[in-house]
């Protein structure tokens, strides 16, 4: 039984589409079973294809709905079945007048996915894992408060390490500040802070609550209590965007995910830094193509939850329009 390769036609189409498109990536809700996004690798000869499998409730008769997100774009999965840790689905990909139908059968255990993808070209072993999620506390927070009659604006920067543990720093125009014992649980933010200004030193604590893109709380010290109003910087850009992209191949669906730390994914292509100011959003990325690399640059504007702009590549310019996905806040987040 043959494993590991699809047709050369499929692989060439994949490589060509790299210059024009990128797959989608979505942040997982951390639910049970298959709910969420799965980072999957599929071998193509000596190459590997990165795919995102994204599952939500809302399919036929209240079952599962899913998407296959790859270099080809976004395709809805069909006939999704998940029972006793066994996952099955059908994937249909179209390239021009050609249609490729594959079936998947595999298992999910402890956030790991293994299985086999089969079509008329043979079989490929599939491995994957649940996508990690970034804490809602991560990112940059503009913190406003009063010290006496003076209005002060500082920045709380929360960053996770590779294991997801959170650390923070306090950036202020006045003095030096060191944060310790930072914690986030069920929307509650707590930390200790040591501050120094000239020859004066003091300690304080912060207790606050995150509600969406707002962080409110109180700084407590021997000098009294100070109320703080915080707002997430870049909130209008952060989140998942469903995109419509005009390419020379015709219109395709894409997705952009901007993380709270302003890193992002355009499809599965990582973006180190998204710039966002005055409603203007820009980013660049490098797409590998064989032994070469191609740069893609996006510039657009966000207005009332809508994104419009252009992606400039070596093959020309693509018009992109999109809308931000609005999801209800999940309990305990």
Labels describing this entry:
elongated; 9-stranded antiparallel sheet; Lipocalin; disordered N terminus; 3 domains; mainly beta; 333 residues
Topology of this structure?
Blueprint: H1 8-18, E1 36-44, E2 47-57, E3 64-70, E4 73-76, E5 78-83, E6 86-95, E7 98-109, E8 112-119, E9 122-130, E10 139-147, E11 150-160, E12 166-171, E13 176-185, E14 188-197, E15 200-211, E16 214-221, E17 224-232, E18 239-247, E19 250-258, E20 264-266, E21 269-271, E22 275-277, E23 280-289, E24 292-303, E25 306-313, E26 316-324
Antiparallel strand pairs: 1-2, 1-9, 2-3, 3-4, 5-6, 6-7, 7-8, 8-9, 10-11, 10-17, 11-12, 13-14, 14-15, 15-16, 16-17, 18-19, 18-26, 19-20, 20-21, 22-23, 23-24, 24-25, 25-26
């Amino acid at each position: 039984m043959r494993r590991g390769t699809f047709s050369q036609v499929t692989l060439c189409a994949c490589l060509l589409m790299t210059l024009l498109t990128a797959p989608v990536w979505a942040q997982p809700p951390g639910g049970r079973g298959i709910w969420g996004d799965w980072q999957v690798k599929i071998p193509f000869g000596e190459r590997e294809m990165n795919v995102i499998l994204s599952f939500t409730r809302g399919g036929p008769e209240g079952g599962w709905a899913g998407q296959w997100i790859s270099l080809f774009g976004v395709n809805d999965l069909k006939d999704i079945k998940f029972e006793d840790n066994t996952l099955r689905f059908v994937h249909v990909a179209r390239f021009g007048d050609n249609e490729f139908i594959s079936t998947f059968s595999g298992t999910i255990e402890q956030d790991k996915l293994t299985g086999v993808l089969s079509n008329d070209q043979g079989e490929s072993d599939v491995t994957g894992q649940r996508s990690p999620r970034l804490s809602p506390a991560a990112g940059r927070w503009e913190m406003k408060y009063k010290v006496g009659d003076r209005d002060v604006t500082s920045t709380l920067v929360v960053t996770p390490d590779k294991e997801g543990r959170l650390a923070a720093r306090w950036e202020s125009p006045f003095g030096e500040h060191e944060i310790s014992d930072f914690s986030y649980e069920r929307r509650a933010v707590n930390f200790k802070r040591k501050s120094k200004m000239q020859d004066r030193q003091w300690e304080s604590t912060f207790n606050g609550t995150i509600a969406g893109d707002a962080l409110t709380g109180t700084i407590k010290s021997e000098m009294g209590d100070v109320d703080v109003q915080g707002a997430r910087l870049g909130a209008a850009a952060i989140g998942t965007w469903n995109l419509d992209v005009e390419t020379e191949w015709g219109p395709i669906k894409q997705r952009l995910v901007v993380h709270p730390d302003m890193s992002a994914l355009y499809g599965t292509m990582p973006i180190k830094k998204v710039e966002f100011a005055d409603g203007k959003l820009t980013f660049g990325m490098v797409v590998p193509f064989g032994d070469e690399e191609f740069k893609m640059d996006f510039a657009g504007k966000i207005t009332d939850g809508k994104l419009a702009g252009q992606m400039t590549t070596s093959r020309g310019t693509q018009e992109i329009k999109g809308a931000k996905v609005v999801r209800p806040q999940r309990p305990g987040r």
